Amino acid sequence: MATDGNMNMNELVTVKPAKAAPAEVESAAPVAPVLELEAVREQLAGAKGVQYWRSLEELSNKEGFDQMLEREFPRQASEWLDPVSRRGFLKLMSASLALAGLSACTKQPEEAIVPYVQQPEDLIPGKPLFFATARPTPFGAQPLLVKSQMYRPVKIEGNPDHAMSKGACDTYTQGSLLDLYDPDRMQAISKVGGTRTWGEFVGEMRDAAAAEKAKQGSGMRFLTETNISPTFADQMQGVLKLYPQAKWYQYDPVNRDNARAGSRMAFGQYVEAQYQLAAADVIVSLDADFLYPHFPGFLKLASDFATRRKPEENNPEMNRLYVVESQMSTTGSKADNRLPMRASDVEQFASALAAAVGAGGGGTVSNEAAKKFLDVVANDLKANRGKCVVIPGENQSPAVHALAASMNSALGAVGKTVVYTDTVETNSTEQGAGLKELVADMNAGKVSLLITLGGNPVFNAPADLSFEAAYTKVPLRAHVSTHMDETSRLSHWNVPSTHYLESWSDARAYDGTISIVQPLIEPLYNGHNPHEVLTIFSDSPGITPFETVQNYWKAQRKLSGAEFEAWWKRTLHDGFIANTAFAPKTVSAKSAAASTAQNNPAMEIVFRPDPTIFDGRFINNGWLQEIPKPVTKLTWDNAAIMSPVTAGKLGYEDQSVATITLGGRKVDAPIKMVPGHPDNSITVYLGYGRTHTGRVGSDTGFNAYKLRTLANSGYAVGATLERVAGKKWALAVTQHHHLVEQGKPKAGQSTTGDAAASRQIIRAATLEEFRKNPEFAVEGANEPVSKDITLYPNWTEDPTKTGAHQWGMAIDMNSCIGCNACVIACVAENNIAVVGKDQVLAGREMHWIRIDTYFESKGPADVANPRAYFQPVPCMQCENAPCEPVCPVGATVHSPEGLNDMVYNRCVGTRYCSNNCPYKVRRFNFLLYSDWDTQSYYPMRNPDVTVRSRGVMEKCTYCVQRINSAKIDAEKRLGKPDANGQPHDGKVHEEDHVQTACQQTCPTGAIVFGNVWDPNSRVSQIKKQSRNYALLAELNTRPRTTYIATVRNPNAELEETKQTETHG
Amino acid sequence: MASLLEQQNADPGVDDITQPGVSPPVIAPGYDFGQVTDKIGNVVLTKRTPWSWVIGFLIAFGIMNILMLAVGYLFIKGTGIWGINIPVGWGFAIINFVWWIGIGHAGTLISAILLLFKQSWRTSINRFAEAMTLFAVMCAGMFPLIHTGRPWLAAYWLLPYPNTMSLWPQFRSPLIWDVFAVSTYLTVSLLFWYTGLIPDVASLRDKAKNGFAKFFYGILSMGWRGSARHWHRYEYAYILLAGLSTPLVLSVHTVVSWDFAVSVIPGWHTTIFPPYFVAGAIYSGFAMVLTLAIPIREAYNMKDFITDRHLNNMAKVMLATGLIVGYGYMTEAFFGWFSANKYESFMILNRMTGPYAPTYWALIFCNIITPQFLWFKKVRSNVPILFIISLIVNVGMWLERFVIVITSLHRDFLPSSWGLYHPTVWDWATYVGTLGLFTTLLFLFIRVLPMISIFEVRALLPQSKVTVE
Is-contact B195 B222, C-beta < 8 A? Predict the structure, then answer.
């Protein structure tokens, strides 16, 4: 017994004589004396009677035994402080663990994990990379900067260096990320249901092409979407050279045929109007919804518009927007003076307005209110010659476009507030007429091979063309598409198409600037790019899209070798080719002829692209489906939108179902009333009612294309409605506008509008009022409670108790156009779950930021044409957050930097915090909303944000993951010289541009976030404005998110009319 | 016999302070000690379980299984099976919780406070009122747990237990106070009830012929032999527990009311809540005691012990507490106007005229108008009408909690976030299921334990009034 008997383990580790140990032990731990049998014998000898002992050590009653009992790691444990021995211990432990594994009964599954043999230089797990690319749309490319985590695109942002984006991004583009990962995408090439290989497809296509070759391709047709890719156009020209009789058609249901025809009427050629709203003092919209992403050039229009809507105390100036429109749009909601007018009456109005400003036209308007409006607008336009602009609506007839062009010419706007340029379309054709020709050819049996590259013409072609019947007459039909859709169902060959984030291409932005579309990921589902499909018919088959695009640009730039490589890298890096924007064209508009349009009192139906699923292409996109459409707040459906007066006349309520008949075609639609909609008119959104789509888009809405004809693609007059008795169509609306929905408000019952007014949720003034009293937003407001009434010290102003930064946000309600880009950016950034229609109906949508919409009416006359206000509401991050003290487990707590943090792990889901939140910004996972099972969604999620489980509360965090990332970066710079050569203080500064997702994507820069302790930060500067106010400040919540009150600039003359109407 | 009971029973005829001298006795004449014991004890010791009991039990048990189903499905799917949403984060679960807790108040009040006030008429109803309390608190206690999103964590994170993370509950939250209040109440009520049972259980042990019953009651009676020392200690323990329970009658519902009053929500954030909740709790508790006592005394022919005088007295308590509750409603409405607070005034207007106005007016009818009939002695002595009134008050008190929880939440500060709450079939299943659980437990109690306190009733008999010459 030379060593401690209880130290079996240590014996294995170090076989050292115990006596030698003290010399090696550095620690001051007392050294246990060696047990001596002699001592034991002494003990035993001295004892009387029976003794019980636990060990010999106890028996020997040495000091060491007591020590051993007291110390957790007796004796040789001290040795483990020595590095060598400790390593030995670890070795032993790992060995024993391995042995334990061997001895276990269950076999571990074999899962090979392979590290990078050569790790890519730029790959740091957890560190995102950003790649510039672009999303092609029918109206031009949207320049992008896409965030990539471990080479997976996880978030789309606008390209900050691009003039058409400036870092902003629109609603559709934000949502398009989900399409990439959509598990319902077409995943394999198939021929009449049977899976085929790419080789088989190429073989059959080449055979068919060879057969065509003999007849110069006279039976060959290509149908694509609107093309804006120069490379594709070049390729197509090559193909058409090989097959001179072949034809290429383009068709998009939301196309620019009207604008094109109008431009030809005015200029004799198709030129695109680029409105320069930053220079416009007066803007007149003739049914143009230019403050929504379905308008060409939206981002720049919105951003320019907003720059002129920021009146300051020392510079109380802003532009004025007149809107004449056929629905309550986001543009109309921002109007200073708005006139609801049936779409079919706008042409007459435009003609009369043109006459009034001396730009041709003629005629007059019969309606008294419209006449007054027209006179006022005409006077304002004439008074602001060269500083005004007239914008025609995309839906409007060619005549309106022509009239607008003449007005802009006559008013000296050309070159100042509007410039005309070439079009982004590489081969601008009359799409409707082209499609008609194609259908005629198909019916005549002239088409033997039809390649449809993208698009879904069977679903969305004009109803009077009977495209489906003609299509099935073509002997060989191939469709390249992302999803199995209505057209795929009727095609022989189906080829999965790539998403734009998977493919090489190029595209022009609306201003003409060319971007290279570069992929961020290998095709997930064997997708093939249209460029690739087209090579089958070219004389150089097998060439990859990458080579196609490169070859084109090599030829274009006349560069090669290293020179080209450098140019190529530069272009990819920047995301666009510098100085490729269109030069303004000098064109002059002819004086437009007077309109011959007649007022038709019959019911009118207006077709518009859907604010969320566009023309139906995003139908299977849960993010976009669940975004509440602006103004209506409708999700997961479209509806026949009409004014309450019309609905009342016809005896409809919300959600009642009507059969709409137009030209003998019928469709059943639910009714939705919206204030501000012109009477005797219905607005329907296109794209819903798909019969063949993925799981998300099935059974949503009704198909408005069934009513839409070639001649009446914008609107049609002569619809009749018939009630479907006893049927109700549940519409999932996220906010109830009691102002209208309850019909007549009951006596004594406060309506939404009234409550919002008395609670001063919306604070607004006219520019005149603002000039007189810049303090209107805070004067007479509900008094915020003094910070000194509490016994507790005010921690927010005590630097010792707080962090280095204090985060805050200011939201400019004057700039917000309610486009929802922030909502969907937040969804993408924060892994917010889609809940589905039934859960939205139950009131459980999960969006962390919402756009509250309030209608304002100052009298009965206003109800038909109310003003609307958009108020984005994220978490207010209250300094005195009511949610915090009521949580029984402390799952929501305040950070020293003023954030109201949510600890998901700790949350047990009592929902008390949500009940106690006056702003109702908290969202609860009532069920398991996050999709934990669908594999394809895994790589899409932001790895910096927890995917929440059921039973957990969640809410806006001010994108705390972005803040923390910026803080880590700042801390790393601590002490290093900063830009001024001073040692860095390790804090996040304004120039670090820490941005929330909603702020980053906002097209108008309405959301500003930053450190409110830094007096020079933008957010502090904005909060200093007199228009800054806090929501429900009287509750003493001290919200960190504040609002900048709205200032409108209505024309006093029209306001007077309104007043007299109200009183009269 | 113990001194307290002697005092208490010194003059059974005049202890009713509301009607001195004229009230009927609290026990019908013509019983001796043995008859009392037999009459009450035989219900338990009989070998023949009445068919009516079996049928009633099976129905109750069936309904209880609806609860099992509803809670099982709830644990599988989550609270989304209910109608709750944002803004109405609390629904039936919290309504039921407050309702059951309220019902649980009568037991303690009858047992403890009336004992201290020497109201001898409490004697024949206190046992099952206490049992009712226990079962009601069990039903209530279930809800705060199952209504959470993650009950498997809530079950222990709400308790302050030392852990290596040094994480404690958030002591500022009224929900934590609830945990303490309700668990304390359940513990004290259980102890009080059990202590009161010991002498009776001992009697049953002695009377029982069946070996299992002897064993069962033998264990439960904890060696009670009825010695003077036993009685002495028993008396002390009982009176101490009564003293301990008394503040709980006030505190539990006060704490429950803080769940609402501590928040900022108009309609919740009000100082009247504690007294108004306590009065409401006693009100609903007595209504429930009446609802149970009337059929039980009919079924087991206990009219001699639970006399019309008992019913009359309970009706009076209901009237008094009902008036307090009515005052509470009036105060709420008055302050809606008097505070000049736009949120408060909107809230009260919305209650009266909003989408849930029918529930508000039904509540006024049930809780304010109906009890006014109790002013009349004829009504108080008409048992069927009393039974109907007690049912209406039970419904009314449930509606009161519905109005407080739902109408306050569904339209609070920002009109953009207003919403509606529609209970789902699972909400109803859970609620009805707890009624099943409650009645199941009650049926078991009646079959297994003496529903009326034997020894205390014996003390009410004239034979026990021994006058020392």
Answer: no
Closest approach of chain B CAs to the CA of A610, in angstroms?
A: 23
How many domains does the structure of chain A reveal?
5
Q: Which two tokens stand for residue B458?
A: 């014996």
Interface subset of A 836-895, CB within 8 angstroms of B: 839, 842-844, 850, 852-854, 871, 873, 882, 885-890
Using alpha carbons, list the distances in angstroms from residue A44 to A3, A48, A51, B392: 21, 8, 9, 84
CATH number at residue A458: 3.40.50.740
Q: Would you give the end-to-end CA distance of chain B in angstroms? A: 17
Domain boundary at A367, A389, A421, which? A421
Tell me the pLDDT tens digit for each residue of B196-233. 889 889 988 888 888 888 899 999 988 888 899 999 99
Q: How many Å lie between the alpha carbon of A828 and the closest alpha carbon of chain B?
A: 22
**Looking at CA atoms only, how far is residue B326 from chain A in angstroms?**
24
**Mean pLDDT in residue range A994-1003:** 93
Using alpha carbons, select from B379, B130, B75 the residue that is nearest to residue B241. Answer: B130
Interchain contact, A910 vs B175, CB within 8 Å: yes
Q: How many CA atoms lie within 13 A of B226 on its CB side?
A: 10
Task: Summarize pLDDT for A687-716 with one digit per residue, the tens.
Answer: 999 988 888 888 889 999 999 999 888 999
Shortest CA distance from B160: residue in chain A: A889
Token pair in block for residue A205 = 């296509």
Average pLDDT of the residues in B104-113 = 79
pLDDT band at A774 (very low <50, low <70, confident <90, very high): confident
Distances in Å between the alpha carbon of A582 and those of A262, A295, A301, B441? 20, 19, 17, 84
CA of B183, closest CA in chain A: separation in Å?
16
Instruction: Quote the distance between the C-alpha of residue B188 and its chain's center.
Output: 14
Average pLDDT over residues A658-668: 91
Quote the ipTM score: 0.90
Question: Do residue A520 and residue A436 come from a single domain?
Answer: yes
Distance CA A270, CA A264 (A): 6
Give the residue numbers spanning the domain of A269. Answer: 258-421
Could you tell me whether strands A272-275 and A247-250 are parallel, antiparallel, or unpaired per DSSP bridges?
unpaired
State phi, psi for B308 to the nearest 5 degrees.
-60, -25
Question: Among candidates A692, A733, A728, which has minimal Cα distance to A491?
Answer: A692
Q: Does A907 touch chain B (CB under 8 A)?
A: yes
Confidence class for position B7, pLDDT limits 50, 70, 90: very low
Q: Do B414 and A927 touch (CB under 8 A)?
A: no
Residues of B in contact with A909 (CB under 8 A): 79, 148-150, 154
- Are A269 and A245 found together in one domain? no
**What span, in angstroms and rounded, lies between the C-alpha atoms of A747 and A92?**
83
Q: Which residue of A has its CA nearest to B174?
A: A886
> Is A51 within a domain?
yes
B437 contact partners, CB below 8 Å, separation of at least 6: B64, B67, B135, B138, B139
- Based on the fold, state whether residues A700 and A788 are members of the same structural domain: no
How many Å apart are CA A321 and CA A284, to the nearest integer?
A: 6
How many angstroms separate the CA atoms of A774 and A782, rounded?
17
